[in-house]
Write a structure and sequence with these properties.
Elements lengths: L2 E6 L6 H6 L4 E6 L9 H9 L3 E6 L10 H17 L8 E4 L6 H14 L5 E5 L1 H9 L4 E5 L13 E3 L3 E2 L4 E6 L29 E6 L15 E4 L6 E4 L3 H9 L6 E3 L1 H8 L3
Helix pairs in contact: 3-4
Length: 273
């Protein structure tokens, strides 16, 4: 299901204004510029309003082409920003490739990023070529912009920035296409429902018994392959199993047996002793 969101840099709309756009989540920034960054108060306000939070690190537009050392520097600052605003250490951070380039120009930068942050928690923002290559490189959170995409949309994108703005141009419109797109709080996978226990008619405590008839002829009325005894009635009552199916049904309900009893004991049971 596609879920609308907006990403906001320097604008500071309130929660009501954000919700009025139809957005269910907000993307905000980490960067070297504190006037652009998400604050601890905003994290609390968004969470209280049940708005998902996505974060993206964006320094200068060409940072991603400046190599491994820049990736390390940006990742360290992003981790500090994340901790400062109270987001958990397992919250995903996207890193922006905010120009038209190719993966070979930015791979060293992301090597630096992932030396600081677990690769599973690193998202990538960029155009079509970057998203396709990032997927091939094993990155799991991908945010594609319409810019530098030439009308192509990657099937691997979790978020699509299709163009268009809201809030008087203060926020870009985005759409999340997967349940888990790196938002906080993370979606909770519902547990598989446990089917209710099958209820059945209570079976009294019973034992299936088989009569040892080696020394006697089969007594009149004996049935297949013996009898079953109800133990929790007073006096004990001997009943007959009428068919193999009857025995199978009792066994399936947990009735133990068959247990062999002597012919003499059988006679005692018949008389209720």
């Amino acid at each position: 299901m596609t879920v609308k969101g907006i990403d906001i840099a320097w604008a500071r709309p309130d929660v009501d204004g954000i919700k009025a756009t139809g957005a269910k989540w907000v993307a905000r920034y980490f960067s070297p510029d504190p006037t652009k960054n998400i604050t601890k108060a905003e994290v609390a306000a968004y969470a209280a309003a049940k708005l998902g939070i996505v974060t993206v690190f964006e320094g200068s537009a060409g940072n991603a082409t400046k190599g491994r050392s820049q990736g390390i520097k940006d990742a360290e600052l992003a981790v500090t920003n994340r901790k400062t605003v109270g987001l958990p250490g397992d919250h995903v951070i996207y890193f922006a490739v905010d120009l038209d380039t190719t993966w070979d120009k930015v791979s060293a930068y992301f090597d630096g990023v992932t030396s600081v942050i677990n690769k599973k928690l690193v998202g990538i923002y960029g155009g079509y070529k970057i998203i396709q290559a990032a997927h091939a490189a094993g990155y799991g959170f991908l945010w594609q912009t319409v810019a530098w995409s030439n009308g192509h949309w990657s099937p691997y994108a979790d978020i699509r920035q299709t163009g268009g703005t809201v809030l008087s141009g203060g926020a870009d419109v985005d759409y999340a296409d997967t349940p888990d797109f790196g938002q906080y709080p993370s979606p909770i996978t519902p547990a598989k429902p446990v089917p209710p226990a099958t209820t059945s008619t209570k079976v009294p405590d019973m034992l299936i018994i088989t009569v040892d008839k080696t020394d006697k002829a089969t007594p009149k009325g004996a049935a297949w392959p013996g009898d079953f005894l109800v133990l929790d009635t007073a006096p004990r009552k001997l009943l007959h199993i009428k068919s193999p199916e009857d025995e199978a049904k009792l066994t399936s309900k947990g009735v133990p047996g068959p247990f062999t009893v002597s012919y003499a004991d059988y006679q005692d049971l018949l008389t209720g002793k």
